[in-house]
Amino acid sequence: MKFQAFGLKEQLLANIEAMGFRKPTDIQYKAMRPILGGDDVLAIAQTGTGKTAAFAIPAVENLMRSQRRLHYTGVRCIVMEPTHELAQQSGAVLKNIVVKTGLNVLSIYGGVDQAPQIEQLQKGVDILVATPGRMFDLCSQGYLDVSLCEILILDEADHMLDLGFIGDIKDLVRRLPRHRQTLFFSATINEKIKKLAYSVVNKPVNIRISPKDMVSRNVTHSVLMVNMDEKRFYLERIAKEHPEDRIIVFVRTRVRAERVCKAMERVDVKAVCMHGDLGQKERNIALDKFRLSEVQILIATDITARGIDIPSVPFVVNYDVPDIPENYVHRVGRTGRGMDKGYALTLCDPTEEKETLKEVEEFIGGPIDRMVMEKIEREATLDFSQANKDHDDWQSLIYEEEARRAKEKKPFKGKKSM
Ligand code: AMP
Fold first, then answer.
1. Of the chain's two ends, which shows fewer C-beta atoms within 10 Å, N or C?
2. How far apart are CA 100 and CA 97, in angstroms?
3. How far is residue 300's CA from residue 318's CA, in Å, rounded to a whole number?
4. Gap between the Cα atoms of 44 and 27, Å rounded
5. pTM assigned to the model
6. How far apart are alpha carbons 377 and 193 in whole angstroms?
7. Residue 322, CA atoms < 13 Å, CB-side half-sphere
8. Which of 12, 16, 21 to mutate to test the pocket of ligand 1 (most atoms within 8 A of CB)?
9. 309: Cβ below 6 Å to ligand 1?
10. What is the distance in A from the centroid of ligand 1 to the CA of 336?
């Protein structure tokens, strides 16, 4: 089925085509008709499935059909996003969708100057994309008129709950007209999310991308059992064997992000990190470097995972198995986006991370394929590493010592490298 089949306006179809979207993804196909028909929607869909366009395209069509009311300078459609990155990204998608439609889009989030945003708000904004915190600030300062808001969209609602935005959401909803359309999107569902959902939607159409699609069909994913100490050699090898490909690497903590980044730089693989300790500006710089392929590897923590939407990233490497199982879905969703194909590899320490991996597999509802590695492959990987070629590198000394003691049948007690 094509986008033409939904009876969208010509300009909107032209914009969709200009964005390179040939046919709707599953979630777009399922969400389009109910949203165009004016229904509330409760959709469970992961990032990477095309969910932004799934709400943005029909919402824009609805706004074009209804037209701004005379003298109303308030906001007609609100898109709430949990993080700055998502607000930027969804704002960018919406800006592409509204080209030459006469509608305007404003993205606002904390960490940037309020004054220009307020100026624009006072002129009238059709679609406002914002994080709850900044939206709440502007509302309580009286800069935000939402009295005739037609559409409320909550994106990644589960993440908003995790970040403690529930109070801000409820406060905003209280200020909105009762007769509005509400589109509630969440990557995961549990009792808490359901409760929030049913407090804001009205007789919603439920859409769920089936659990077997937890990980997008476009992504091939597997696990490789690797000792914690040796993970860096595998990452180096993947990077060097695919020099043209960009790789997003996920680690558990910001300290590890910095360490892995340094380890890669030492072996001449260009890498940059992105974690919660960095300011918004630094995060944007890191993302831009990666987006522009100035570096091959982006090393990120889970906190920043959902904000990364970069097309044509063929590899995700889970350098650590995620502690929170659902983060696996968000991480691997960074590849295979839209219609692209992707590959996600999880490096799992056979002792330390075995249990965590089991939890991930339970969450996604089945085992992840194991990559079988022959002993010879392991040795080849360690040999491959530039770090091990530099004789003064202490890690290679540890391996030499390990080999020597193995011959003498003495257990080696080298300390962990990371
Ligand atoms: P999202 O799940 O909204 O974060 O979208 C994931 C990626 O899919 C983005 O890079 C979109 O540009 C891309 N995308 C969304 N819809 C389509 C489509 N119909 N055809 C091709 N790519 C798409």
1. N
2. 9
3. 10
4. 9
5. 0.67
6. 45
7. 24
8. 21
9. yes
10. 10
